[in-house]
Amino acid sequence: MVGVPRSQACRTCKRKKKGCDLKHPACSQCERLHLRCTYDERQWAFIAQNSTGSSSTSRVNGSDLDASDLGPQAAPTAAYQRSLDRTILEVEIDELFWTTYMPTNDPGRSSIIDGVVSLPWVPTLRALAGRESTTRLALDACGFMAIGNWRDDGRLLQQGFMLYSRALHEANKALRDPAQAQSDDILATVRILGMCEMFRGDGTKEAKVTSQGTDWLRHVEGTEKLLEWRGPEKCSAEHGHELFVDCRTSAAVLGMTRRRSSLLSTARWASIPWVTSRRTIRDKLMDLMIGMGGLLNLHDNLKNPLRDCNVSTLEQQCREIMTYTVHLNHKLQAWKQNVLEICVDSGDLAAAGPLATLADVCMNHGYGFFQLVMQYWSIHLSCTRYAACIANHCHHYFRPEAGLYGTQHASWPMAVTFHYYAATGQADSPEVQMMRRILREIKSARFTSAFLVSIANDPAPPRLKGDARNTQDLVEMAKHWWGVDKSDDRASYFITLSSIIPLHT
């Protein structure tokens, strides 16, 4: 038994220095993270004795055994055969990526909350990667890019880019086949390729604005088109539904960034995928978030009647916007109240008071719940109050227990907040200074920082494209996105809306 560690914990728990419950075939920690759970086996020495009493000692190993000694043999499964094709490094990086990505489980978190904010798309992606080579390539690329950037390891990063190119090539080939193009495999592949953009950072380490934000939005456009091609009927069950639910969040961000209606905001997409599934609080918030791009687009359309002095058309559009806005505000209020009631049911006393707010409970129920609250604040119409809420809580995304999940999901709430303060003459406010300090000083925040600088450029016209790290450039881009730059006829609709919508929300 020489060389066998004294600890009987599985290899993953020993590497992470976590307590292992020693369950077989997989411990609870590995099962939760969907990681391969392996234990160090003790090496036994068997002593064979002959009739004369002499003995010899030999160590049994696989090369000394014949297949017939092992009983009936079954052909290796396809998934097992594919696993043999992977290098040891690829397997290790895959496990390390998911261990680094997933937030650490909070043992005090209520199962009531956990059941409605879980991430079903994670096991879906891993299951598809286990049996589909294109998805596996994309997932390996994502792992190598993320870990390579995290460790400042140029070799891993270069390998990630090579795998990314191969996955992109295979996906493009599959798209030429209508049957393959509508498969879960290709939808998952495009989804993961977009995820790569979040973690690739600036591979050149030069102080320049990268294209990763625009590239990410292009991948999201690709997932939207694939979903449209598949139709809502293929998104009503199993992997198809789980991928659809995940893609809706990115589609909502795309719609708001480009200020246009999402393809997934129509009545068919709001009903057919839910025929056999029940909406969670996450899904209900996405129902509201997916329509925000259309609301921004309605606001943009105000500029044409203003130029034409068409008063009746202008009045009709203003009425349409106000009706939609009031409806949205009521829905957001109802969602918040529902969430607080769920928190009370889970035993969270901070949510039980008559003046309880989401700020009181947002960090009490794990990172899936925290992300929902931050998304709620980012689309709420009471901008002044909730921009401050995001600024004051965004540090939670970058705690060690948040994993890379936190750095990935911090982008949208922080982008909206930076733009709001820049567009309203508060680019040097204490809240902005605090967020900049977080992005500058916390190592994991560099993923978010690079992505924020990149994506700020996408909706800006060529004359305004700049470096968001430069305050004046950010101010000009933010004013344009909010619709308050002087070259536009649009009114400061969303910024002044807080005077119309009650602030007690």
TrEMBL record:
<protein>
    <recommendedName>
        <fullName>Zn(2)-C6 fungal-type domain-containing protein</fullName>
    </recommendedName>
</protein>
<dbReference type="InterPro" id="IPR053178">
    <property type="entry name" value="Osmoadaptation_assoc"/>
</dbReference>
<keyword id="KW-0539">Nucleus</keyword>
<dbReference type="InterPro" id="IPR021858">
    <property type="entry name" value="Fun_TF"/>
</dbReference>
<feature type="domain" description="Zn(2)-C6 fungal-type">
    <location>
        <begin position="9"/>
        <end position="39"/>
    </location>
</feature>
<dbReference type="GO" id="GO:0000981">
    <property type="term" value="F:DNA-binding transcription factor activity, RNA polymerase II-specific"/>
</dbReference>
<dbReference type="Pfam" id="PF00172">
    <property type="entry name" value="Zn_clus"/>
</dbReference>
<dbReference type="InterPro" id="IPR001138">
    <property type="entry name" value="Zn2Cys6_DnaBD"/>
</dbReference>
<dbReference type="GO" id="GO:0008270">
    <property type="term" value="F:zinc ion binding"/>
</dbReference>
<dbReference type="InterPro" id="IPR036864">
    <property type="entry name" value="Zn2-C6_fun-type_DNA-bd_sf"/>
</dbReference>
<feature type="region of interest" description="Disordered">
    <location>
        <begin position="52"/>
        <end position="72"/>
    </location>
</feature>
<dbReference type="Pfam" id="PF11951">
    <property type="entry name" value="Fungal_trans_2"/>
</dbReference>
<feature type="compositionally biased region" description="Polar residues">
    <location>
        <begin position="52"/>
        <end position="61"/>
    </location>
</feature>
